[in-house]
Structure formats: C-alpha cells, structure tokens
C-alpha cells in the first residue's frame, strides 16, 4: 500500500466497503476490486495495530525500568 493512510482513514474506507457489500450496492463488476481493497485495508490496519502495540509496550517497559532505577 503505497499511499499515506492513517488508521482512521483506512478504517473508514473499510467500513464504507463493508456497508456497500451488506447493502448490496456494489455491482458484480466492482465486487472483486472492493474485496481486494478491503483485504489490503485489513492488512494495513492489522500492521498499524501491531506496531502501536509494540511501541506502547516499549514505552511501558521504559516507565517500569525508570521506577526500578
């Protein structure tokens, strides 16, 4: 995913795609492209969540180490 996306932008786009699929407002011709885009967005969101989890973990570890020192 080359573009600069924020988690919120990706989540909003994913939500919109989901609603289109649920409401059956996507044509058969567009369905494969939308599902592919949704897959890309899910992967992006998972990556951002994992990166944030790692970063927060490091911050918490650093705070705990400061208490001990």
TrEMBL record:
Leader sequence residues: none
Q: Which terms are listed as keywords in the entry? A: Cytoplasm, Exonuclease, Hydrolase, Nuclease
Q: What class of enzyme is it?
A: hydrolase
Q: What is its EC number?
A: 3.1.11.6
Domain of life (superkingdom): Bacteria
* Record's protein name: Exodeoxyribonuclease VII small subunit
Which family is this sequence assigned to?
Belongs to the XseB family.
